[in-house]
Structure formats: C-alpha cells, structure tokens
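Q: Sequence in, structure out?
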Amino acid sequence: MRRALNLLRHSIHYRRQAFDEGLERAGFLLVKSLLDPKPGDLMLTWNRYGGFHEQATQFERRGGTVLVTENGHLGKDWRGKEWFSLALDHHAGAGRWVDAGPERWDSWGIELKPWQHGPRAHLILGQRGIGEPGIASPPHWAEGVQHRIGGRIRAHPGVDHSIPLADDLTGTGSVVTWNSGAALKALKLGVAVWYEFPQWIGARAARPLAEWGAEPKRDDADRLAMFRRLAWAMFTLDEIRTGEPIARLTDAPI
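A: Exactly. Output:
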C-alpha cells in the first residue's frame, strides 16, 4: 500500500484532519515518519517553507512524491466555502496538476468583469516573502519595483486590512505582482496585471514586468483559459475530504 506522511500542523487553520481523511480515501496508509520513501509514497506539506522545503527535497531525491497545499488561489474563504490549493512539487503555478477541462470553472458561473482603463497610478501588490526559496517574493521586492517604475504599493493583507482590494483597484489601470492571489482577483475584476515570477499561475492572462512600457495585456480568451485551468488547482475542504482531488493528482498521468 502507498504510504503518506502529512506534515500539516494540528491547527484549525490547516484542517489537518480533513486532509488525513482525504489521503486515506485516496488509498494511502498514513504514517508518522517516512525515511525510506518509494515510488508512490507521498509527503503532504504546506507551501514548502522553512525546513519543510529541505525535507521535501530529500523526500523527492529518495523517490517519493511531494504534494503542496496552501490557501485557495482566490482566497481561503470564497463562495461560502473553505478552499485550498493543491499541486505536485511546488506552489503558485510552479507545480503540476491535472487540467480536466473547462467544465469545472464554467459550472461556477463566475463573471469576469470588462477590462477597465482607470487613471489611477498602477498598484504594486506587496507580499510577505514567505514560502519556498525561488518562489517566495525577494526581500523588499515591492519597494524595488516602485523605485524602478513608480506607482503605489498596497501592503499584503496579512499586514494591512484597512482598504478592501476591490476599493483599491477602482480606477486603477493595472497592477504589478510577484505571484499573488490578489492579482488573480484583479484579473477577475478586469484589471490588467504585470508579473515578475516567471511561473506564476496567472501568467497566461498577464504580461511580464520585463516588458514594462508595452501595453498591458487585456485578452479575454487567455484570461478565461487561465481561470479554467486554475479551477483544477484549488478545491473545497469538502472535496478534499472525499480524497478525489488527491487521487486525481497521484494516479493520473501528467
């Protein structure tokens, strides 16, 4: 039987018990340690930050598979449910997942707002720099971008909750991100995005910051295609409990 090591903390925020149920229903035997992983064995971790990244790297080198979870890409609390992202190897678009078609996103009936062309200065989305090396934003990234291209900085919501994102985006022509979920919400609201992390999950619908000076990307077809693929990288807590999303990732060829 395939074994699974769940490294999520015992905290209500991480919902470890729900992930345990999902792993068991996906056919895994839960173990408390796994020093000899074999192909098919799994390690579940939260965003590969700190010492978990090195542990995950060693696990992969020994033949195991790493499943990374985080808050849902469009928010942990969205559409009245709790959401978590799931991908093999890495987070924020750098990992792998199974795109099973447009039906999932389309079934939600989410409206993608018309593109706006506001007069306010572009908004730089600050991030806390927490996460896996190479994927987490570099230190003082937002300040460095502001120095290069101007604009105004919006603090990460973990630092400042004073202004709702939708209000801050009103009248704003574009935003700049490293790889934030706030930029995905901006795209949903019709605000063009520039990004700097090359593998960012929303890249198809945006333009690299290296191309600053060109027109921002406002392409309806690419935006819809990006959200349709994104839908298969995020699941509700109830879906995770069933084990189906985990089984899809670990059983299907990618």
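The mean pLDDT is 94.
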